[in-house]
Amino acid sequence: MAVAQGSSVAPASHPHILYRRILLKLSGGSLQGPQGFGIHGETVAALANEIQSVQELGVEVAVVVGGGNIFRGTRQGGLGIERVTGDYMGMLATVINSLALQDALEKNGCHTRVMSAIEMHQVAEPFIRRRATRHLEKGRIVILAAGTGNPYFSTDTAAALRAVEIKAGAILKATRVDGIYDADPEKVPSAKRFEKIDYLEVIQRGLQVMDTTAISLCMDNDLPIVIFNMSKPGNVQRIVRGEKVGSMVCSAK
To answer: pTM here?
Structure first.
């Protein structure tokens, strides 16, 4: 049965979908485009198109967006801002990014909900796990803002926590490179890319995939993480269909 664009009823799932529910982790830098800061309209629109194309396959999509394009609490030492205050400012930056992404998705006819870990009823719903799950079941895209609502936790950790809470099949972390390497591929041309790598090896090697708290949470809950290049159109679709894209962090067993 065809579903009208913008319907709140979840479309029928494609028969060859590996992940029925995903959490897509975007950095704040994903929204800044070529200008190098802030929010770039065309870039956000392109991200919305990618997300919509996956949702139209019948995949339930939750999104966590960072805030580094606006304010990154851990890198504001020159301003003399206390760490806790800076972290809260960074959380608010993620809300701004989430609203921008919501606007782009709704212009495409996608029903979208922003749910914030910091209550701000005028612009977002509070994050309630059961409500978020219900939104996903109804075919709505859920954007999870304000991190965990607590300082000292990154948006990577927020993504891992929310993915476990909503029972996502995988975390898809968008980056500007096509996977995990044993060295920085932008600096070391001979760097080796991992197709699959165990959680513990990521931690032991000190690979900058996600922070240790996020990796540990995924490991404890056997939640796979796919690291991929978001700038290549169609990559998210390829991943949910089970194609080999990027690198996967998963259990060695």
So the answer is: 0.91
- Whole-number Å distance between alpha carbons of 8 and 134: 11
Q: CA–CA separation, 103 vs 44, rounded Å?
A: 9
Q: What is the pLDDT of residues 40-63, one digit of tens each?
A: 999 999 999 999 999 999 999 999
> Which residue has 């800044």 as its token pair?
32
CATH code: domain of residue 112: 3.40.1160.10
Pair 212, 204: CB distance under 8 Å: no
pLDDT single digits (tens) 197-216: 999 999 999 998 999 999 99
Check if the beta carbon of residue 61 is closer than 8 Å to that of residue 142. Answer: yes
Number of domains in the chain: 1
Looking at residue 196, the DSSP 8-state letter turns out to be E
> What is the residue range of 115's domain?
21-250
